[in-house]
Amino acid sequence: MDGQWFRRFGDPEPDALRLICFPHAGGAASAYRPLSRQLKPHIEVRAVQYPGRQDRRHEPPAAGIRELAAVVAGKLEDDDGAAPFAFFGHSMGALVAYETARLLEQRGARPPRRLFLSARAAPGPTPRPHDQLADDAAILTAVRRLGGTGAALFDDPELVAMVLPALRADYAALAGYSWTPGEPLQAPVTVLCGDADPVVSVAEADGWRTYTRAETEVRVFPGGHFYLDQWLGDVAEVVLSGVGSASAARGGQRRLP
C-alpha cells in the first residue's frame, strides 16, 4: 500500500483486517495513532495522510472532497489483493470515507466491509453553515468551538501558522462539496457522535441511515465533537464489534457508555 498516502500504525496479526482512517479538517494521519493502540493486534490501522500537511506540507492540497476520494479509491484498487478493510472517518473524514466507498462500488471494486462515520451529519445538496467560513479568523473561531485535546495549540501563534494552510484547504474543500444523488451504499454503516456536539446533532447524524441499503447503527457518546478523545476504548470496542462478529448492531440507536 502506498506509503505516501497511507501510514501504518502498530504490528497487527497476520491477515488482520485493515481499518482505513480518514482525518478531520486540518488533521493528519497521526491523529489515529491512539486508536491503533486500542485496536492492535486484531486490526491494522492505515491512516490516510492528506497532501498539504506535516511531511506532505510542501505538496498542493487536494482540490476538493471528491478529488481526494478519487485518489484514495484508486490507491485501494491498486491494492485489491490485500486483506479485507473497513473505513473510519471523523468529521470531514467521514465525507471522504463515504465518497471513497461510493466510488469503489460504482467501479465494481472491492468495497469496505463497514463504514464508521464519526461526528458528521449526513450530507445534503448544499454545504452546511459550519463549512462555509469566510476567512482565517472565522476558521480559528470554529475550530476552537469544536474543542478537543488539540484546541490549546491555537493559542500558540507559531503553531497556528503551521496548521492554517491545511485548515484553509480543508474548509475550502468542505465549502465546495455538495452531495449528488446516487445509489445507496451496499456496505453497512455505524454512525458515531457526541450528544453535545455543537455542529452535529444526533438527529442529523442519524440521517446517514438513508445512504445505505444495509443496516445502520448509531452510537451516541457523552461529549462534543471530539468525544472520542474521552471514549477511545469504547470507540475501539464499537469498531471491533462492527467488523468482527455477526452480533454487530442491527439498526438500533444506542447511547454509550
From TrEMBL:
<comment type="similarity">
    <text>Belongs to the thioesterase family.</text>
</comment>
<feature type="domain" description="Thioesterase TesA-like">
    <location>
        <begin position="20"/>
        <end position="232"/>
    </location>
</feature>
<dbReference type="InterPro" id="IPR001031">
    <property type="entry name" value="Thioesterase"/>
</dbReference>
<dbReference type="InterPro" id="IPR029058">
    <property type="entry name" value="AB_hydrolase_fold"/>
</dbReference>
<protein>
    <submittedName>
        <fullName>Alpha/beta fold hydrolase</fullName>
    </submittedName>
</protein>
<dbReference type="GO" id="GO:0016787">
    <property type="term" value="F:hydrolase activity"/>
</dbReference>
<keyword id="KW-0378">Hydrolase</keyword>
<dbReference type="Pfam" id="PF00975">
    <property type="entry name" value="Thioesterase"/>
</dbReference>
<dbReference type="InterPro" id="IPR012223">
    <property type="entry name" value="TEII"/>
</dbReference>
<dbReference type="InterPro" id="IPR020802">
    <property type="entry name" value="TesA-like"/>
</dbReference>
